[in-house]
Amino acid sequence: MMVAGEASGDAHGAGLISSLRQNLKSAEIFGIGGEKMLRAGFRPYYLLDSLQTHGLVEVIRHLPRLYRILWRMRDALLEERPDALILIDYPGFNLKLAAYAKAAGIPVIFFNSPQIWAWRKGRLATIKRVVDKMIVLFPFEEIIYQQAGVDVSWVSHPLLDEIQENTDSNAFLKRNGLQEDLPLLLLAPGSRPSEMRRHLPVMLESLPEIQKITGNIQCILPVAESLNLQLVKQAVQSSMVPVTLVTEHFVEALQACDAAIVASGTASLQTGLALKPFVIVYRVSALTYWLARRLADTKYIGLVNVLAEKEIVPELLQNDFNVSKITTATVRLLQDEDYRETMISQLQTTRSKLGEPGAYNKAADCIESFLAAD
Q: Which residue, 3, 60, 288, 337, shows the most beta carbons closer than 10 Å to its own?
């Protein structure tokens, strides 16, 4: 059984399924996932959107639905008795399911650790109790789990496999009706509908202000598979600066762009690894933000800044995520060459800390070895 709760988890799940099937060709993999996992040959009990929530406080109204799904998956564990339960991030749900699996004697493997180094360190005790094998993406996570006595392996980060240096983006630009001689700004409002509703309007409102200073710009928005394309189209129709929409193709759009405005999350790490100058934004309810800041053990929200242990990419959160500050930050990204070069150099240093490509194959080897020894 495999359970992913986010769009990034769906990508991880698909990568793991493909790598596992290289040696375990007849493996049957079922559970909760998205379109990418389905295309990899996954049997769903629920699709990804059944788990979608946003924020600490906002999740409360979704709890009855989430618990119904949790209890159904608990029953599925007992009915199907899988050889292992593979959980991908999404700790609030997945650690509860892990406890059921542990009680039933089903091995639990967790891929992509919860961010216990950032907040809710108390989860480490729960992980030690209910997770049999932890597979992590960042080197400092391996140290944390080793010190806690958890069986852990670091496999590097899968996003490293997406990086293609010196890629010619001309074909991508031409295919999408974009010009080579105009600056291209990428907008990444998030992969959840709630993130798009909170972030996209501010981004769009900033575009004409940016263009007043920089001159003509082009904008591109790669629409995540988890979003409704028609709703995004409706949202950008009112933009005073045209925005080109592409379905998926986030990496290609990244490689073609000159700068980006990116909601915190996996997309911000992808942007950093692609060595593109960008600004991180995020907004949740005031109460959620207040709680998160008091629970957080890290100064930064962006993973590139966490890895660098300093702010190399500006973070505009909550009230700081406004038209004025977005305009100032983006203009600097597009026009200040010294600033751009410094950020790219620091991103290069951060990227070098994440190991070598091949994370999914290494993770599959870990899983196969663990099950063979069990």
A: 3
Strands (E), 108-199: 108-111, 133-136, 152-154, 184-188
Q: Assess whether 20 and 138 both reside in one domain.
A: yes
Residue 191 belongs to a domain: yes
Q: Specify the CATH number for the domain of residue 198.
A: 3.40.50.2000
Q: How far apart are CA 87 and CA 51, in angstroms?
A: 14
Which domain range does residue 101 map to? 2-156+358-373
Number of domains in the chain: 2
Q: Does the residue 94 lie in any domain? A: yes
The answer as to whether 106 is a domain residue is yes
**What distances in angstroms separate CA 155 from CA 151, 196, 248, 360, one per listed residue?**
13, 31, 26, 8
> Over the range 122-148, which residues count as b (16 or more CB within 10 Å of their CB) and which as e?
ebbebbeebbbbbbbbbeebbebbeee
Neighbouring C-beta atoms of residue 290, cutoff 10 Å: 14
> 95 and 211: one domain?
no
136 φ, ψ to 5°?
-115, 160
**What's the pLDDT at 290?**
61
pLDDT, block means (10 residues), the chain with 374 residues: 91 95 91 95 90 57 84 97 95 94 97 76 89 94 93 94 73 93 96 90 97 97 89 93 92 95 92 96 75 64 88 94 98 98 96 92 96 84
* Residue 193, pLDDT score: 87
| pLDDT at residue number 18 | 95
Domain assignment present for residue 162? The answer is no
pLDDT of the residue at 242 = 95
